[in-house]
Write a structure and sequence with these properties.
This protein has two domains: 50 residues, Homeodomain-like (Arc Repressor Mutant, subunit A, Orthogonal Bundle); 142 residues, Tetracycline Repressor, domain 2 (Orthogonal Bundle). The longest helix has 24 residues. The protein is mostly helical. Helices cover 73% and strands 0% of the residues.
C-alpha cells in the first residue's frame, strides 16, 4: 500500500495540475459569460488542454459548472456556520447560516439556478453531483442543529423544518419571478417565510418568547 505521506508521482501531479487548470478556466469563463454563454471547447482552450482530455475530468458542461460551484458552495456553508456560531436567536442564527449561501447562489443568477437544478434533477451517482448533494446535506444538517437548540423544537421536528427551509431557499433563489431581486430582498423574503413556518410550528405553546 502506498504511504499517503510519500511524494506524489509525476503522473499524479500532472493529473492534479490539469484538473486545477480546468477548474480555474471554467470558473473564469462561467463568471464572465454565464453557463449558457460558454462551451466546453472554450474551457479546454483556456485551460490549454485538448477537448478529449477535458472530458476525462468532466463529461459535460453541467459537470464543469457543478465542479466550480461545489467549491463556492462549500466555502459559503463554512462561512455561514461560523457566522451562526457568533449570534443568538433561532431566526438570526438560521439567517446567518443562509446568508453566504444565498450570496453564493446569487453571485451569478444563471449559474446558481443551473447548479441547483442539476443537483436536484441530474444523475446523483455522478461524482461532482454526489459531492454537491453531500454539501446540501451538510447545509440541511447545520440548519437542523441550529433549530434543535430551541427547547420548543425536538430533533425530529428540527430535521423536518430544516428540509422545509432548504426548500424555501431553493425556490427563493431559483424561481424566474424572483430573478431580479437583490440578495437582501431574497433574504427578507426567506426570513418572512421562516418566521411564519416557526410560528405555526410553535403555536399553542404555553411558554412564549421572541425568536
Amino acid at each position: 500500500m502506498r504511504d499517503p505521506r510519500a511524494p506524489r508521482g509525476r503522473r499524479e501531479r500532472s493529473k492534479q495540475d490539469k484538473q486545477e487548470r480546468i477548474r480555474a478556466a471554467a470558473m473564469e469563463l462561467f463568471a464572465l459569460r454565464g453557463v449558457s454563454g460558454v462551451t466546453t471547447e472554450q474551457i479546454a482552450d483556456r485551460a490549454d488542454i485538448a477537448i478529449g482530455t477535458l472530458y476525462l475530468y468532466a463529461a459535460t458542461k453541467a459537470e464543469l459548472l457543478i465542479m466550480v460551484q461545489n467549491q463556492k458552495f462549500a466555502t459559503a456553508i463554512d462561512d455561514g456556520l461560523a457566522a451562526a456560531a457568533t449570534i443568538t436567536g433561532t431566526i438570526d442564527e438560521v439567517l446567518a447560516l443562509i446568508r453566504p449561501v444565498v450570496a453564493c447562489l446569487r453571485e451569478h443568477v444563471e449559474n446558481g439556478r443551473t447548479y441547483l437544478h442539476e443537483l436536484v434533477f441530474g444523475d446523483p451517482t455522478e461524482p461532482y453531483r454526489r459531492e454537491g448533494l453531500t454539501l446540501a446535506g451538510r447545509l440541511e444538517g447545520g440548519l437542523a442543529t441550529l433549530l434543535a437548540r430551541d427547547e420548543r423544537i425536538n430533533p425530529r421536528d428540527a430535521a423536518i423544518l430544516a428540509r422545509v427551509i432548504t426548500a424555501v431557499l431553493h425556490l427563493s433563489t431559483t424561481a424566474t419571478v424572483y430573478m431580479d431581486r437583490s440578495i437582501e430582498e431574497v433574504l427578507a423574503d426567506i426570513r418572512e417565510q421562516i418566521q411564519s413556518t416557526l410560528a405555526q410550528h410553535t403555536r399553542g405553546d404555553e411558554v412564549r418568547r421572541p425568536w
